[in-house]
Predict the 3D structure of the following.
Amino acid sequence: MNTHDLLEPTLQVDAKSLEWQASPADGVVRKRLFHQGETESGTVTSLVRYRPGSHFDRHYHPDGEEILVLEGVFSDEHGDYPAGSYLLNPDGSGHRPFSEPGCLLLVKLRQYPGQGRAQLAIDTGQMAWQALDRPGVYRKALYRQAGFPERISLIQLRPGTCLSPLYHPDGAEIYILEGAVTDEHGHYDEGCFLRLPAGYLHQPCSEHGCILYLKQG
């Protein structure tokens, strides 16, 4: 029996194949990559586009919010965050987000419960890639905190990199930011979102190189 027959199914979504859908705010549209629960209050991972000059009313985030700015400049009353910015807003925090020039975001809602999480605003463009012990693999560490299970990183695979088998004991989520990656189960281009179940095993390779968002745990 194949090991994957015993696992929950892998979720694979190509964002390019989805239509933009309206959000509760004028000028803000979204593509939901993963959603569980109530329409406007469940656990969700989305691409969110702010058209120039659009904004959300002030609101709060039960179970936290995570944002990776992919294009443009995202803002709130705490600052301006250009492309490459990574934000983690902890359980119960609030803000009034907007974008003057427009922006594109990867957003995760209601996935970071628990008191005591750090509030982060990181410019990943100012971070150096750190070599890992796997040839051709580099990382920018975004979030890891004692007492919480998540480890969140940007991962770069240099052209021609093929990893030894990689095991995800607690599952993982991957969003392809640039380039493409393959494994024995498929080919994943820029804009592809993967949600891997606990116990997943695969062997990622990238012929031309790639950069991806990786959430473990």
